[in-house]
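Example record used in the benchmark description.
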Amino acid sequence: MSLTSVLSNASSGLVAAQSSLRTTSDNIANVNTEGYVRKRADQAHRVVGGVGSGVEISDVRRVVDQFLVSAGLTANSTASRWGLVSSNLDTAQSLFGDPTSSTGYFASLDKVWDAFGATASNPTSGVLRSGAVAAVNNFFSQTSSLNAELKRMIGSVDDRAKSTTNDINDLLAKISKLNTDISRSSIGSGDSTGAENVQLGLIEDLAKLIDIQVQPRSAGGVTIRTSEGFELVGDSAATLAYRSSDSTSGYLAIQYPVGAEQPITVTGGEIRGLLDLRDNHLPKLSEQLGEFAARAAERLNAAHNASSSSPPRNVLEGRDTGLDLPTAVGGFTGQTTLAVTDASGVIQRRILIDFSAGTMSVDAGPATAFTPATFLSTLNTSLGAFGSATFTNRALTLTAAGTATAAGIAIDEGTSKKADKAFSHFFGLNDLVRSSGQTLYETGLKTTDPHGFTAGETLTFRMTQQDGRPIRDVTISIPAAVSMQDLLNSLNANTTGVGLVGAFSLDAQGQLSFAPSTTPPISLAVVSDTTQRGAGGPSVSGLFGLGVLEKGSRASRLFVDPKIAQDPNKLALSKLNLTVTAGTPAVSPGNGQGAAALAAAGDVKASFDPAGTLGAITASVADYAAQFSGAIGASATSAANQKLANQAVAEEVDQRRQSVEGVNINEELVRLTTFQQAFNASARMIQAAKELFDVLTNII
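Model output (structure tokens):
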């Protein structure tokens, strides 16, 4: 071996040891630096012309376990998702209050039953009447406020989803720029570990926002993809866009420099949690709140319509049924009795309506036949000079002749029934709780009834995947054919309707619902609805409760009848007694049967539609309240458990990563000593070569 070879080998060893010392020194200096990954200088044999010529540093790289990195990103992404859901559900749960407390939301309904129970024992007490009205008003005011808070939370989540998408795009741009820096450094055989550490920190931040797959690039840097394979970062960064509307689900779409925007699947990270909250958890709470409040109002109204104030009210104003009168009257069975009384409650005229027989009889006289089309005229004839009936804007109104204090109308619901509601209840003639729109969707319509919508009006649905990604929009025109079956046929058509993904059906109570037929099931959202049932009437979605907006707004529509709120004496706390002798008051102020019925309304079983996390059940309002409060707590607890489980996984992975990637000061000191000795050995070798060269020079 020549002196030149000796010097070359020694100098290469000197440089290699120096580089290793610098690497080890960096590790020791950053022992407490968060996010720092230990690096190592890899040495390799240097071969020149097929002959060994010392050593060289082949690479300075970070000591990374890619499996642990990937596991950590996934765990942190999932934990971030459920952490966000958990915190928001905790907030939503706090809005309802402690279900065991006397000040919580559900306790306010208990106070309604208690108030009417107290009134039943003393129905003439003005203080107790006012207290009962205040209790009902307080419950529905709380319901409206609670629903407004849930809507505010949905809006806040929607805004945060937009800002989170911007944060994702910002991180993608930074990671892409570091890809360029790392690749440039790798080509120049430089130390890119600093940039790689910074990039890893950005990737970890990104994983908390959205689920990702990360793969190292041969040229340095990383390729980042979505869970389904769309490239987010490679040679350049893609751009994500958040798309949402009030009536449809939110989703993320990816946009490349060339090509159309493409919806993507999101399964983790904050953005998934935000989408879940916006389109699933919070709307379900709002929908369930609406179902609960609407059924509570229905039970109160059923009892109130079966009762009468004392003296009876001069005018009974019905609700907007959404139907024309013949359709509304058609389908009723059983009997009901209308009584016109004087100011003292003595019956002046009594009309028995037998829907099953299709007849009316006045004061037990001969029966007069009627049809749904002639119902109003026959009723007016039967009332004669004692009152009148009108039907305007889809609402029935009964008026007693004379001044408000001289005459009134009382109703005995009898056996009448349609869509599980008695006559007065169906028309809302004596409702205690009013609404500014439809709150229950049992229309009583049959497939043979006219649908009532104008031909050519349109209803647009959006079909969406379970994660909110849109499939396509379908616009359905109201058919010229007039029956509900014809409308169902249009809705369920394979080419122009939703028949390929499911079907609409009309149940025995006249409620329209959609059942998906695909696996996994698709969802329908109402994008637009220009239909009207009659002039100024409800739309298809409004009448039948289709879409998130419709069902989610019910809880904000309910309020105490303003006339009762202004005058609690109009509360129907008595019952019409048809067994009294002539000339004896049939309605008396001391009769508290109506108040007792209102107090017991919470224990009467009702059919609850599927809402939120609860399916269709038959239960009392009180029982449903317990299940509702339990479901809220269960959802919050489930999210918290998911968060804790994934946090535990993330912490375990982090500890394992630290054992691999972290700096152990003792190990680094050993390496430092080793490389110092190697440096000294190479230096001595150079010194020896110099001395040998000097000796040879002196000999010559």
